[in-house]
Amino acid sequence: MDFRTLGNSGCAVSTLCLGTMTFGAEADEAVSHEQLDRFAAAGGTLIDTADVYSAGVSEEIIGRWFASRPSDVTEPMVLATKGRFPLDGHPNGSGLSTRHLTRALDSSLRRLGLDSVDLYQVHSFDPHTPLEETLRTLDGFIRAGKIGYYGLSNFTGWQLTKIVHLARQLNLAPPVTLQPQYSLIVREIEWEIVPAAIDAGLGLLPWSPLGGGWLSGKYQRDQRPTGATRLGEDPGRGMEAWERRGSERTWTIIEAVQTVAEQRGVSMAEVALSWITARPGVTSTILGARTLEQLETNLRSSDLALTAEETATLEAASDLHATDYPYGALGIEQRSRELVGGR
Ligand SMILES: NC(=O)c1ccc[n+]([C@@H]2O[C@H](COP(=O)([O-])OP(=O)(O)OC[C@H]3O[C@@H](n4cnc5c(N)ncnc54)[C@H](OP(=O)(O)O)[C@@H]3O)[C@@H](O)[C@H]2O)c1
Questions:
Q1: Which atom of ligand 1 is nearest to the CA of 180?
Q2: Most buried residue, 94, 141, 223, 287, by CB count within 10 Å?
Q3: By alpha-carbon position, which residue is closest to atom 41 of ligand 1?
Q4: Rounded to the nearest 5°, which phi and psi values hold at 136?
């Protein structure tokens, strides 16, 4: 397992992170604890959860794992959680206000049974709360010793740029990470969000790196998903819904991943995960798994380095073919400058 720092911070984390959205949902407590044990044994050190995962149960399961394992297993772990989305239905039960974030963090710490978390992520932008209020709250959490660092999730380029500059202006702690959806299927963030994050020194923590399971090769064209799979259980689920994601482009990408996987004699999941972990700006790829076997497969991606030719095959198949302006060929040409001639 390799290690990189959380963006511009000095905190080192493994390049694979254990996502825990399945904990308390598809994975019961015993399987979740097996996944955590296996991840720790493989040298993984970053765990990602959120208050809303299984309505708080994911955090509780992680808390009981921390409480029941020896300190040499738990001490290396860097724990990340999130707040922003509602667990209560009232108007102040969500958002990035001081009121909500203070209650949300305290509730997360209570469920985790810990005094602090290493990384606290605001789960998405809040159009109703001034960024200064959110920044002062997060800076206060750091000063109070309740969090080590904070990060952003699902922010756009202008939003993260604004928050980084405002933090500097107000002499408050800046964010260190951005957690966006990112995979061979979802590459739109490369146009504006990834360059903004790199410019701001934020490390990327990609979520849904297998596109919700699609890139493992588990779904077949013209065959509606069945059985104990995300879309077998709920074809309309989230961003990965069968009708929404099952485009010609997706099937082309899946074929390219399959080709590379067969040539290398590895699983498709390993290929897709190896590709994303090697992308510019990425600190740690967040793995999702229902079973221990899936996690075993996904962890093996840390041993796979794709060649330039294999990477080109995957990137040609997943190219979004942006129209000329602003993100296509003519827009890029307008922003380029060749340093030729003159002295
Ligand atoms: N910040 C955010 O807004 C946000 C949003 C979503 C997720 N996340 C984080 O990112 C993590 C990962 O997201 P994700 O779970 O959507 O990631 P993903 O890797 O795209 O999808 C994971 C799912 O794919 C299937 N799968 C995984 N490995 C497989 C394998 N080797 N072979 C076959 N199927 C496999 C499993 O689903 P089935 O077996 O059930 O089909 C698994 O639950 C989450 O746990 C969470 O920590 C963050």
A1: 1
A2: 287
A3: 229
A4: -65, -35
Q: What angle do CA 22, 111, 104 make, to 5 degrees?
A: 95
How does pLDDT run across 28-52, given as a tens digit for each residue? 999 999 999 999 999 999 999 999 9
d(CA 188, CA 274): 19
pLDDT tens-digit map of 72-111: 999 999 999 999 999 988 999 999 999 999 999 999 999 9
**Under a CB-based contact definition with an 8 Å cutoff, are residues 16 and 49 in contact?**
no
**Class of 3-335 per CATH?**
alpha beta
CA distance 330 to 316: 19
Tell me 239's DSSP state.
T
Domain boundaries along the sequence of the chain: 3-335
Residue 335: other Cβ atoms inside 10 A: 7
318 lines ligand 1 (CB under 6 A): no
The question of whether 150 is a catalytic residue gets the answer no
The CA 318 to ligand 1 mean position distance, Å, reads 19
For 279, the 3-state DSSP assignment is coil
- How far apart, in whole angstroms, are the C-alpha atoms of residue 268 and residue 120? 32
pLDDT tens per residue, range 102-114: 999 999 999 999 9
**Among 46, 49, 154, 208, residue to substitute to test ligand 1 (most atoms within 8 Å of Cβ):** 208
pLDDT at 89: 86
